Structure prediction request, 118 residues.
Amino acid sequence: MIYADYSCYRDEYGGNRLDEERFPRWAREASAYLDQVTFGRAAGRAGSDPVRMACCAIADLLAQGETGRISSEMVGNWSRAYRLDEDSEGRRLYAAAARYLDGTGLLYRGGEPCSNKP
Prediction:
């Protein structure tokens, strides 16, 4: 399930990094990431603003990281080298999800709440 469409990305989220042709690929990846970090619970809140906005933010970050971060650049005989930093990228993706999903319970990693009954 893809949690946001291009009009949501452009009009509500205010995204401009992705065009309409490239957006579905990254939204699909972002949605899969949300399913992973929410243990599938995002599907139950698919139309909610927090899930849609998180999907857009993550799609933006994933598209930005498509080539990795620039590690070096030359001007004469122009050249550019990229590096992928999966650890910091993972933190950035989770932070983007948390920005919109904190307080929803979707990022909760624990089990069922304990009762105080003996």
Notes: DSSP finds four helices and two strands in the chain. The helical segments are 6-13, 23-37, 49-64, 86-101.
